[in-house]
What does this fold into?
Amino acid sequence: MINGGSSDTGKGSLVGLLMGIHHFNNRNSTVVKDLGDIIDQCKIRFTLDFDDSNGDPKTAVTELSKAIGEDKVCVILGASRSAVSIPMAVISGVNDIPQLSHLSTSTELDKHANYPFFSRLVPSDAGVADAMVKYFAESIKISHICIVYVNDSYGISYAKAIQNAGYKYSLQTQAFALPYDPDENNVLQLIKSLKRTNIHYFVAVTFHFDILMASAITEGLIGTDYFWMLTDATKKSSIEKTFEKGSSEAKAMKGIGRILASSGVPGMKGYDKYLSVHHGIGEEEVAYFNSKLPAQGDIQGDEYYGKFTTNNFDPKSKDYQAPNYTGLYMYDSVMALGIAACKSVGTDGIFFSSKNQYDYFSTNSFEGASGTIATDPVTFSRAMHSAVFVIYNSIEASTSEGKSKFTMERSNIFYNGTWTQKSPFIYADGSTFPPPNFPLAVVDKNFIKTAVFGTGLVMFIIVLVLSIGFATYTIYNRNHKVMKASQPHFLCLLCVGTMVLGSAIIPLIFDGKRFNQEFLDRNCMSIPW
It folds into this structure.
């Protein structure tokens, strides 16, 4: 049971699903070498039955219950939306039917006690949040972030996962909720609340980044000195846009980040193998794919994908459709269930227990298209050490019309528990240095004003001139009876004292505005002398 958009996820999932079934049934181990180990011992083959939930939980539960009642279900693949997978997982758990989702990420599905036969090869939101906070705390070394999240089950669980990861990595977080369907006033008030925190780093878990960006521009909370990290809630099309060069929107879009769970990147063995097979799909495979597609009347809404052609798999063709991450997750889900079923069969090579199949899958690993396939022993979601996450960087380029066009390019990749930089992250100011976590402190050093400096010099000169003058007068008239009575030596000593006292004005009027630190250090030590 699969649901998804026709362009971004749905057709990519279909390719992965159909290729996975075709490879498993024909024991093609080009991508998954473990498949070669079950050629002789297993007679199981997959058949396929589509049910379109149209993204609606009620429809999904109704169709699944009907299929189970007709004894047509051995395993369940899907759904995409967490809100659909959750009620399905309750039913699959009651009926002991293994269910794997290729795209549902809600942390609610990490509760294995509630959903005992559910698992997924896509990391949960908790995994993405952990990797993100690790990047903030250890890679760019910041201490505070603000979270803007959509106020629904998805956004709440994502924000909570970020906060939990914050405790782990000693990162302070402040969370702000945004209505699911916000208006401009809601967003503006939230932006003003963010501004009052004085924090410069923000994570946006929202479907309405366009509205958020407009208010952030108005309040000066985006662009130079600020950093925004987006998630899978924000569509790629909301970022990869073209603006007038030098416009406030173009300035705001510079240096934005986006973190996503990834099924692999070029250079990873599994991904490269899958890509090679994808590019090698010919007429025989296309005919098989088209024979398995649901009829147009079986798909609700606008999600009918049409027939495949060989041009869809030819990189040189204008109709080429590159494999997306949902396809690789779906392919590995098929392989995981198939291998587990074959490892659970009896001596006849056909019959197996669903529980044994699920137990084998959840306790064993293999190398798939999306890397090492391993599940967490507590949540039964994709294990963190086997997951791949990518941080993308919005990069500005000039078009032939002189406008600014933004594209998202890979900057950092998380794999095997470590972030690796593939290309320097370019921030809003054009540099590779992260902006400050808080506004830079403006320190009033209270330097001595020029008038005061001049007055001090004048006063010292007056004291100096009078002391020398009176000392000279005393020495010159030392034989006068009045001077003798006043003790000339004592009078001269007083003049020297007033001259030394007056000279103390000099080091007191020197400061860092006019002199370097070395001079000031020596000047300071001269005072007691």
User: Anything to note?
Assistant: DSSP finds 17 helices and 14 strands in the chain.
